[in-house]
Write a structure and sequence with these properties.
homodimer; about 700 residues; alpha+beta; Four Helix Bundle (Hemerythrin (Met), subunit A); paralog of FGE (formylglycine-generating enzyme); Rossmann fold; four-stranded antiparallel sheet
Chain lengths: ~700, ~700
């Protein structure tokens, strides 16, 4: 299928006019392939059948890829207006599982295939014309107007594959092969799988924004991982190998399954892989458009849950620690095999990009050195839930491509399948599906003593915590410096020789002050009463990465990524000791500090007087106590009888600072006149809270 | 009682050293008089008896006046610390009706009279020493450190009088005359009262902050009133004249009483004035320390409710419109009689300042020209509920002296009584009590066709409305100009020749923009959906005065007074037409405007699209529509399906401005690129909300 050899273009090198032509070709070839795919639907009513009861019928996908071009190009300001607003609404939403709740077929009155075909042609012409007319300057990076065009093409490539999976679920009598007639017909002798060693070591994942191939947002960034030596299965697990599991009653033995897996198995009443067709006592194999005799040498196509159950069963049988590879282990395998990226292939080294077959093929057909099918044939499930690498940013034109899947419930698949084209066929491709989901996906197992580290790195969406994250790590607004940086300046001013001193931050929130202070102090202990607030600080210290979501206009959101590295925080003398603890019930060990900061803590306490009465016990002679509060007493937190001020006593107004001075003066000397500190809280892109806290600085007598 | 001739000193003129001595004398004489007053308590247990079941026993007041000195001087920073913190808490609160709810005798464990006497002496010495030591510079104004000292002295003068009323309610066998033995013994022939004419005209009330005599906060400011010609009773109503009412069954005839009065009468089962003592079929009269045969020529001492019932009865009997005077009418009478202020008396012109008697005296004893007892003898109830004059400010050291009584329930008494000393005996004195309350107070009636205008001018305490008042009329904070002034600049920039044009402010809030625009426009119509918000604007337009309370620290409050005059708003061409109306259901008559402003309105509407669709019908060709919003959509107000933006549609983010442009473009041309406008809301002295609204300016096609 030479005409559909769809390789994603180099966006950095080349000559503009040739590049324009290359992109136009790429666009047209992808569009044509997509068109041809739907020609496998022999009858029109196949467009309206539900291949999967929880997915739209194919007529939706037939319109969707064109509608996507229009919507993104309008959003990018490259098209002046919509082409068919009705279609561009109808075909916009409901692509995947994320929208299952919304999927109510009653709401749709699908147009005819002819209408959609005509719409597709209009869009194809419009986009082609745009590619011809739009000024082109290399490199094509995120900001380049060609980026949304490539985005539309790659989006179409994705749907070519996912629609092929849906077609595979339609009745074969509604289908024809069309151009997809190069299925692999033989069934090889079945090879015995074996585990071959791979050397461990550090590996670096993620690409830079200067990379010359198109990438989806989640491919960028940098993630380092150290892998122990491990062994990898030479072949993908074949249908034959998987059948051992079935024969051993694997689908009926709860112990092999994860809880999620067992629950899915029972719900689906699964007895074998979905594309196996059981006929009396034998199996056939469903390919995209046809059912063929079982190919025992083809890779078993299963979901993650089945693959995991197989590994558990096989571990027990072999007394080995078998599991799926992590994403990093898969890249170790790729590096081991010295695989080149798609743009450098003459011919695809595996069954990928439609360059060889229009189906999967035996697991011992394509070798990459010692291993087979490292890329291509079918996708390979991994143990790794998808998340952005450190430095992840969403692309503004498609801010929900990845982020909804950063939930720990979507596992990465790697390597591509026979129908993976464009970006899907590149080494950096990162796609993920829910663990129960079916794609043209199988698996290979690894043997390793190393427990895969499962990082979820989901976005902090707890509004209060996210607001604190932005206050600690976000931008400055209205010309007001971030609160923790202001506090750090106070520390610098009042505490000499910090490198010999211990600091206690009694209300560290999401931790910025502690990180900053750790640059200078011998040791920083940072306490917060709430796990919700301290968790992001701990994650940031551990992973160097913090993610949160803040409010834009209305319900729109802005995704924020913070890298500890980017904050210019060098490796501190000692890492911050973050602790969740109640400042009202401080443990004995919190003592002998040279400096204590308690900012906006008093108003969070049930009895602030108690803290002020006791704080001198925690601090050394001549130690500095920095106290700040906005005195926003809230009866629900601090009963009025415990307020420090802000009320009338004996008819006269009592200011909180007076009570503070009264209590602290017995053990401390006031270093300078209390002063106001102004800081800001961002509530949304149009709403900010400016607070004025009063700061007093005390020296222990 | 020459030694207690207590005249409040001139605080502006004089020589410092002499002034210091004058103040010291004034302090000591007042203190001594207060001490002597309590010597009328013959036995110690009289200190602990409840003269009034809803008031503290006299032991409280015995301590209170000294405690007040200490508390205010500590607050002012003139005393370094409290003298007896326990006393200064115990004797601080519970002076008057405002605190009746708190008055639970169980909470008090009163000290002995000796202890309090000792405390008083200590305080007297301390304050005397302070008067001797404190640097003194004339004039003594609000900011002068001597002000709180004078405040304490005047406070003591007040309590000399109010305690004398409480003593008058104790059993006479517990009392002795002490120095208060100069009671008026005779009973004059009873004069026939008559009504004498007074010329009406404009009168100006209130004194300036440069005035040379001490004043309580509510004496300052300026209030103008125009009074019709009226007639005033020559004498206060005597016991004899009042007895006619009683004999005519006045206490049992509901029609003479106000609803409040009848309710009080029934509750108290009142049959005659409180200090009349009924013995079989005759009456005696209770004076401060003794009961004497009824003095029919003495003024009837009653509360406002009884005085009002008498006037109603007498009006019916005489077919005249009789009522109590207003405060302004009382001053007309004072002016008519050319009465000099206390500091200019050689001898008091009436029975006041203890210069003549230690009791009231016949109503025909002291003449002021044609009239008797214009000042002195007993206080005179008026029709006027107390309120601050325009320009009223609270003194920071005593912010609740007046404001709790600005509730429409406290009526002014004027003229002073035989025991009114210091500030009480000055012409500007303004004291008020609840209408059912007893003091040494009587009344005179006036005849007038004019309905007294009852201004309450209570403080806006509704938090949201008060915040809007501050946003419209308050200070600038954080260097951000007030929102309505920013909007007025936009009007000036975009609307030429406003003096020929009509403006509609569709969301006028508390009205500042409308007042500002009325300076330039031919006519301004200002609409708000909420009566709560528009009411202060209407009051401000009507009375030139607006009062509201904003939050300081905790529950502390700041009282704010706004004078239309002080905003440099000249008399506009036409006054603003303020209307409460729903922008969603605008009446037909709102049309043909040359300019319409709708700021922060969209987010308050159930269906903002509807307003945008219809607004062109209200505006002339080439008219300007100024739209601003922060797009803070709230599902509780605007259902999400009606939001203009801030959501994803067909997977793509929709910004509100896009929808606005889409809707308005059919009838309007966008004048310039939409821009951001930053403004501020003060929530408390330490908490501000900064909002960024987007403004777009449209010209009607």
């Amino acid at each position: 299928m030479e005409e559909f050899n769809i390789k994603t273009p180099n966006l950095v090198e080349g000559i503009s006019d040739l590049k324009r032509q290359e992109i136009l070709d790429y666009f047209n070839r992808t569009f044509e392939l997509d068109t041809k795919l739907y020609e496998t639907l022999q009858v029109e009513d196949a467009f309206y059948m539900r291949a999967d009861p929880l997915r739209h019928p194919l007529i939706f996908y037939y319109g969707h890829t064109s509608c996507f071009f229009v919507n993104k190009l309008v959003l990018a300001g490259l098209l002046p207006s919509h082409i068919n607003p009705e279609f561009e609404s109808m075909f916009a939403i409901g692509v995947d599982e994320m929208s299952w709740d919304d999927l109510n077929e009653k709401n749709y009155n699908w147009p005819s295939v002819d209408e959609v075909r005509f719409y597709r042609k209009t869009v194809q012409k419009t986009v082609a014309q745009l590619i011809k007319d739009l000024p082109l300057q290399l490199p094509i990076n995120w900001e380049n107007p060609f980026w949304p065009i490539i985005m539309g093409i790659e989006h179409q490539n994705i749907h070519i594959e996912t629609s092929s999976v849906l077609i595979r679920q339609l009745p074969v009598d509604k289908l024809q092969n069309g151009i997809f007639n190069e299925v692999y017909k033989e069934d090889n002798e079945i090879p015995t799988n074996e585990l071959l060693p791979i050397k461990g070591g550090e590996i670096s994942l993620g690409k830079s924004h200067q990379h010359y191939l198109y990438g989806w947002d989640l491919e960028y960034g940098n993630h380092k991982e150290t892998i122990e030596d491990f062994k990898v299965a030479k072949y993908l697990v074949s249908n034959a190998e998987f059948y051992e599991f079935i024969k051993d009653n694997g689908y009926h033995t709860e112990q092999w399954w994860t809880e999620e897996g067992w629950s899915w198995k029972n719900y689906k009443q699964a007895e074998h892989p979905q594309f196996w067709v059981k006929e009396s006592n034998s199996y056939k194999l469903r390919l995209m458009t046809q059912v063929v005799p079982m190919k025992w040498s083809f890779p078993a196509e299963i979901n993650y849950l089945e693959a995991k159950a197989f590994c558990n069963w096989k571990s027990a049988k072999t007394s080995k620690k078998l599991r799926l590879p992590t994403e990093a282990e898969w890249y170790k395998l790729v590096n081991h095999c010295k695989i080149k990226d798609a743009d450098q292939w003459n011919v695809a080294p595996g069954n990928i990009n439609l360059e060889h077959y229009t189906s999967s093929c035996p697991v011992n057909k394509f070798s990459f050195g010692d291993f087979f099918d490292v890329m291509g044939n079918v996708w390979q499930w991994t143990e790794t839930p998808i998340t952005g690498y450190a430095g992840f940013k969403v692309h503004p034109l498609y801010d929900d491509f990845s982020t909804p899947t950063f939930d720990g419930k979507h596992n990465l698949i790697k390597g591509g399948s026979w129908i993976s084209t464009g970006n899907e066929a590149t080494l950096h491709a990162r796609y993920a599906f829910r663990r129960h989901f079916y794609q043209h996906a199988g698996f290979r197992y690894v043997e390793s003593e190393q427990e895969p580290e499962i990082r979820v790195d989901s976005y902090v969406t707890d509004e209060e915590v996210a607001i604190s994250c932005e206050q600690n790590y976000g931008a400055n607004y209205l010309g007001i410096e971030k609160l923790p940086l202001q506090l750090n300046e106070i520390l610098k001013k009042h505490i000499a020789n910090p490198s010999t001193k211990n600091l206690l931050d009694l209300n560290c929130n999401t931790g910025r002050l502690a990180f900053e202070a750790a640059q200078n102090f011998k040791q920083v202990t940072a306490i917060d009463a709430s796990a919700r607030f301290i968790q992001p600080a701990i994650e940031l210290q551990k992973n160097g990465l913090l993610r949160y979501v803040v409010k834009d206009e209305g319900d729109l959101q802005v995704f924020k990524d913070v890298l500890l590295n980017n904050l210019r925080l060098e490796k501190p003398i000692n890492p911050v000791l973050f602790m969740q603890d109640d400042a009202m019930k401080l443990k004995e060990r919190y003592k002998d500090f040279d400096a204590i900061v308690a900012f906006n803590l008093l108003e969070e306490l049930q009895n602030p007087q108690l803290l002020l009465n006791e704080i001198h016990k925690r601090i050394r002679k001549d130690g500095i106590f920095i106290l700040g509060s906005s005195y926003q007493w809230n009866k629900a937190i601090t009963p009025k009888e415990n307020w420090l001020g802000g009320f009338k006593k004996d008819g006269e107004p009592v200011k909180s600072i007076e009570t503070i001075q009264h209590i602290l003066s017995s053990q401390f000397t006031l270093v300078e006149k209390p002063f106001d500190l102004k800081y800001l809280t961002r509530k949304s892109s149009r709403d900010f809270d400016v607070i004025i806290s009063e700061v007093s600085i005390w020296k222990k007598k």
